[in-house]
Design brief:
45% of the residues lie in helices and 20% in strands. With 251 residues, it is of the alpha+beta class. Strands 5-4-3-8-7-6 form a six-stranded antiparallel beta sheet. β3 and β4 (116-123) form a beta hairpin. The two termini are 13 Å apart. Residues 13-73 form the HTH iclR-type domain. Residues 74-251 form the IclR-ED domain. It comes from Gluconobacter frateurii NRIC 0228. InterPro entries: GAF-like_dom_sf, HTH_MetabolicPath_Reg, Tscrpt_reg_IclR_C, Tscrpt_reg_IclR_N, WH-like_DNA-bd_sf, WH_DNA-bd_sf.
């Protein structure tokens, strides 16, 4: 996987970068925050954070009510250009809808972004995926989710080590995940329970670009009782792998 070349600091606007950090502070369910909350998230002073928040408010990207702030619908426009330029709508959408219909399951696509996966498309077939709690633009861990592990297993070892470090894994967790990723590489898919309290399971299959590098993963979420191991291996996985093959040119 090619690493981006470093950009000279003289060509970087640190203020703009800090503004984007403020927007990203609203990830992970943080939908309604005070300036102090945001400052803690991004690691800047309250005074600096307040200026950034007020600037974003003046531009219409956040809205303040009683000193609490949340994103507005205008923030969606920031990702619209990406979705259009990568053919997410007119190429990816029809493929996922056709496979979702054939399979009878909701199929989702997440793309690799640095040390996480970003959820970029979902074709709903039932309410299961909504129960999993993800929406377009949500980020997912490469270390702890089926979608992320399906990607991580096919990354170069040096990048995997970066994932391990940023995920702050213990030595035991590191060793366990290393063994798990080796298994995923061999079998071609990741399978993981959503949580100990849930009956839901997630299945992730890697998606590769034209250069043969892992670019993302397709996934479905389903009740554990719906499929046995044979059905997962011989029905679900081939469907997702075929779907991933169709999407190569868009990744």
């Amino acid at each position: 996987m090619d690493q981006p070349l470093p950009i000279p600091e003289t060509e970087i606007s640190l203020t703009f970068a800090k503004g984007l950090e403020v927007l990203r502070a609203f990830d992970g369910g943080q939908t309604d925050m005070t300036v102090a909350d945001i400052a803690r998230q991004v690691g800047h002073t309250r005074a600096a954070t307040r200026r950034l928040v007020r600037t974003l408010e003046s531009l219409g990207y956040v809205k303040g009510v009683e000193q609490r702030y949340r994103l507005t619908a205008r923030a969606l426009k920031l990702g619209l250009g990406f979705l259009q330029s990568r053919s997410i709508g007119h190429l990816v959408g029809p493929v996922l809808r056709a496979e979702s219909l054939a399979l009878g399951e909701s199929i989702s696509l997440a793309l690799l972004d640095a040390m996480e996966a970003i959820y970029v498309f979902h074709n709903p077939a039932d309410k299961v995926a909504e129960m999993a709690g993800h929406t377009i633009g949500s980020s997912m861990s490469l270390a702890t989710t089926a979608t992320g592990q399906a990607i991580c297993a096919f990354l170069p070892s040096a990048v995997q080590e970066q994932v391990f470090r940023t995920s702050k894994l213990s030595e035991t967790e590191h060793d366990e995940l290393t063994r798990h990723l080796t298994k995923i590489t061999a079998q071609g898919f990741a399978l993981k329970d959503i949580s100990p309290q849930s009956d839901l399971r997630a299945l992730g299959v890697p998606a590769f670009n034209l250069d043969g590098e892992v670019a993302g993963a397709l996934s479905i979420v389903f009740p554990a009782s719906r499929y046995d191991d044979a059905q997962i291996r011989h029905s679900l996985v081939p469907h997702l792998q075929r779907c991933a093959t169709y999407l190569v040119s868009a990744l």
